[in-house]
Each structure stands twice: as structure tokens, then as C-alpha cells.
Amino acid sequence: MFTRNPRTLNICGTWDEKQFLTSNSSMFATLNIAAGPKTPGDRACDLCKQKKVRCNMANPCQTCTNRKLDCTFNEIRKKRGPASGRLAKMQQRQSKASPEKSVAAATNPPPSLEFWPSTTSFLQSSDDNAAPEWRAESDTQEEPLQNMNGEFGATEFMLPSMPIESPSSENSFNLFAAIQGHDLSPAVEAVEIWPKSISQEALLPWIDVYFRRLHPTVPVLSRTMVYQEMLLRTHHCDPQFGAMLLALCAFAMTQPVQIHEVASTPSRSVQARMLLEESLKMRMTVDFGESPTVYMILTSFFVFACLFGSGQHRAANHRLREAVDLANSLAMHLPQAYDSLNPETRDQWLRTYLVLSVTERAYALQKRHTISFRGSPAVNACFMRAFGSFNSSSVHQDQTDAIGMTGLLYLMETFDAIDESVVECWAGYCKYSDGHCEAFDRRRALRMFRAQQRAREDCLVGSISFEPSASILPLHQLLESQQADISVTQFWLLNRLWELCMSHGLLRENSEHAELRLDFAYRVARKLLAACDVLSIPSMEVHGVGLVEKIFDIAMGLVKAMNSSTQLSLEFSLSDYDPLIDKASVVGPTVRSLLQRLHELVQNFRGGDHDYLSRFTMTLSAIPGYSGAVEPRH
């Protein structure tokens, strides 16, 4: 059972994380499981059990004596059978009680329950010692009836293996217990759609994991907004918000897994699956999508992210299409749709649109799909105005949100040149197989390579080409996880463009343009490793298997270049001076050394607990003359 050590939690959430890990060592701790009686006599009488009060187990007990009722402590109880007869007897005894007692009971009602009506009985009780007496009768039929009536919650999750940075759910108890049931609006009290099998309190640490690890690169939610809505119990009456919370927690549970947490991956996967199932149950109706909301979009996006991480790519693509279709239904991609929105809603829409746009284009290049968001989002004046208003207000509000938005804008500029024509060529829908492709040629390829180089230079110095007047942080001042995401993605896009040039027959051994030569794959791999050398492994692990897949793609590009070129070999090296990367022009590492270092990087990612390590190892073993001995770095 999780130890309780309540502390005050403010709206931004402060936690004692290490103590939580120390005091809660079990992988799965379920709540609401009543302990059976230690002895046949270790139980409460019927009246005490029904009233949920302490029974002193005397004959008669003190409670029955005070109420002048016949105590049933010594009556023989049946193991099976309906409880209607016993309940009828109890009701008959109570009806004979004096009117004065009834009036006294009416004028002194029991205290209202705490904020969570479906949480466990020991969370609702202020006296921990009183709980065993009225929970003891696990072999009778009264307790299942009470469960069905909602007086007792069903067995709940206490989610497993909290990360080191994660807070204790114990600290959040005081925050939500401060709101009493009678303070809520009648509408909230009347409608209850939250699944009783899930403890809202147990989800709070995972919401914090999202804001600590994932929010910098997926800044689609405001911490203050989420906690305010939970305090108002919006998730109990709004199925779309509740479904979004469950999907968000599943996302936080499965993606940002670091190497010291790999052992908990199976348990995380099981619990995340249960959360996703409950999330989809909450929001599915016959007319789902008729009135789309941002919460619907984010739920589909979080479900997509979970399915992507588990390798279920057909289902993941369906959920991503669902999120994009819902956004299209709101006209989230059209400038005029933002004109009538208030600043907060406009900011929420902008963040959601940019995350979806970047994700859709990246996923299309990874899995050869098409995209639905057309055109270039960077040229939209509406988005520039939205960014301007956000940037000015963020100085006085939340700097974390401003940093997250900055990284998102860098990614948007990086993907801005990857439009629908390029994606369709990559997916194989162009006419190159017929001998001529009208969408992608040598001139178009060079223009896109230049755009990628410009995007890299802009983020290093802290500027954006489509909004030169914006004052934003350079890449090295962003969070390390943002640096990892942006840098790896930028070099991966260079690799994707280079591979597209290879498939269209645009590469030459000695082209006048470096980007159109076979050894360009060597340059990309070298720059990637230079960027990763200054990053920690946890900053890359937080992005899940999607990031290691990008590193794997760059490594495979180098292998393809070596197999296709007469000049590239394992001992090939190249002198390359790049003022953005290198201090001086020196002889670069060999191809063998680059492959070894890339293999080491893939192996260190989550301790090699992913499919790409075995695939990379098999590819290297098939290269004639390759040895796994690591060469000294240059």
C-alpha cells in the first residue's frame, strides 16, 4: 500500500519525488481491496458496517447501545445468498428508533466526502484506524451492492514505477481534498462519466511527467489550465477532457522512458493500454466528430503517439489521420479561422496546428504516407500575429511555455520546405517510375537543401527567416531535450532529401554540389555525431523510439552510400571545414569509425531495448571487412 505523507501542492505542482520512490517500491499497488478479517470474530455488526463507523465489537456494541437498537454482532452470517433479508431486518429496527434520534441525526449530518467521490475508502476516511472494521466483511453480499451503488469505488490503478523526476501522488491529496462536494455546481454533481476504476489522484504524477519531460517539445497544454479544470472536476462531466487526460497519462507513461526505467516497460505498457481503452470508451459516440474540439484532437494525437511507440503503425496512422481530420473540420489550417478567436484560444489552436503539421510531415517521411495539411504554414500572416501576441505576453506569464513555443517554431521552419509534392514523391506517388518526375528535380532538390541549411543556421544564432523581428533564444539556450529533437531532426531531414535524390537518380560521384554527391551521407553522419556528442542520453531517450529511428536512418544512408560508390570504403575519410561545427579543418574520421560510433549511440539508447539495435548490428555484420573494434576519435 502506498504510504501517505500529505503535503501542500500549489497549482504548478511541487513534489517530494525521491521519498515517493523510496516509500512506494511495489510495481503495482491497487487500491480499494478490502482486507479480510483476521479471525471469525474480527468484524463489525450490521449497523456499524452500514453506517461505516467504528465498532468496538462488544455485545452489544457501543453504537447500537447509544441508538437503543438490538445489536446483531453475534448473529450467524451466511457466506452466500442475497442480503435483502438482513437489510430488511436492519431497516425495521431503525424504524422503531425514537423520533428524537431521527431529528438529531438530521440536524447533524455526516461530513461531506472529499474531492474524489470514486476514490478508495481510506482516502475518504479521516480516521485510518476505522477503515478495517467496515471493510472487513469481504465474504458477504453487502459490499458488492455498495460497489454498484457507488459508495465504494472499484479496484483502482496506482500506476507503476514512477520516474525519478515524478512527484508523489500523496502530495496532491491536499490540493484536491480542499474542494468539497457541496462547493461544486449542480451540473457537475449530476453528471458522472469518469471511470470508477481509475483514481484521478494516481494520474497526477504522470501529468507532471508530461510537463517535465514532454511539454518542451510537445507544448500543446498549459499546466495551469489542466490543474484548474481538474479542480473544477471538468473531467467528471466533460468526456472529451477526461479522455484527453487519460490519453495524456498513457503518453507520459510510455514515451519518456530512460535507461534506468527500462525494467518497468512491461508494466507501463499494460497500464497505458488500460488507460487508452478507458479514454476511447469515454469519448466514442455515434456522432463523434460532429462538433470537434481541441480536446478531441489532442486525445487522438496522444493515442497516435502511444501506438507509434509500441510499433503499431497502421493503427497509429489511423489516429494521426483522425487528429488531422478533426483539425481540418475546425479549419485550424486556415488564417481566417483565427480572426474571431480570443488570444488564449488562438494560442491553443496555433500550438495544436504546429505540432500536428510537424508530426504529420515527419511521420509521412518515416512511413511513406501522404499529408493532409497542404502548403507552407510559415507564410501565414495569422500565425505570425499569433506568435507576436504570444511572445509579448509570455514574458509576464510562463517562460517555460515561451521556450517550448520557440522550439516548435524552429521545427516548423525546418519542415516548412517539406510540402505535399515532396512527400508524395517520397511515398512513391510521383511519375519517376515512368521516366520523369515533374515534382522533384535537381533544381528543386538544391533549393530544399539550401532551405534546410538556412533553418539550421537560423536556430544556431536565434532567428527565424519568416519573422526576422522576433527576439527568440538560440538553440544552445533551449532545454537539452529540445536541442536533441531539433538537431537530430534537421540532420535526418537532410538524409531524407539525399535518399530522395538517390531514388530519383540525381546523385553523382563528383557533382559540383556537395549535397548531390554520394559522400554527402558521410558529412551528415559526421555532423549528427558532433551534435550528439554534447547531448546526454536521457535528453534523447525522452523522445522515444522515433528519435533512435532517425539515427538509424542516417546510419543506413551511410551504408547505402558506401555500397553505391566506388570511392567510399571503410577507410574513407574527408577533410571538411564547417564554421558552424568545426573549429579548424582537420582530417575527419573514417567511415568505419562513424559506423562504430553510430552503433554505440544506438546501443546506449535505452540500453539497446529496441528493434533498431539488432537491425543495425545485422547490417554491420554483413559489410565485408568490418570490425567492431572502436577506433580513437579525431
UniProtKB/TrEMBL annotation:
Zn(2)-C6 fungal-type domain boundaries: 44-73
Stretches the record annotates as Disordered: 82-142
Pfam families named among the record's database cross-references: Zn_clus
UniProt cross-references to Gene3D superfamilies, sorted A to Z: Zn(2)-C6 fungal-type DNA-binding domain
SUPFAM superfamilies given in the database record: Zn2/Cys6 DNA-binding domain
UniProt KW ATP-binding keyword: no
Identification of the protein by name: Zn(2)-C6 fungal-type domain-containing protein
Keyword Transcription regulation (UniProt): no
Biased composition (Polar residues): 117-128
Organism: Aureobasidium pullulans (Black yeast)
Alphabetically ordered keywords of this record: Nucleus
GO MF terms held by the record: DNA-binding transcription factor activity, RNA polymerase II-specific; zinc ion binding
Superkingdom of the source species: Eukaryota
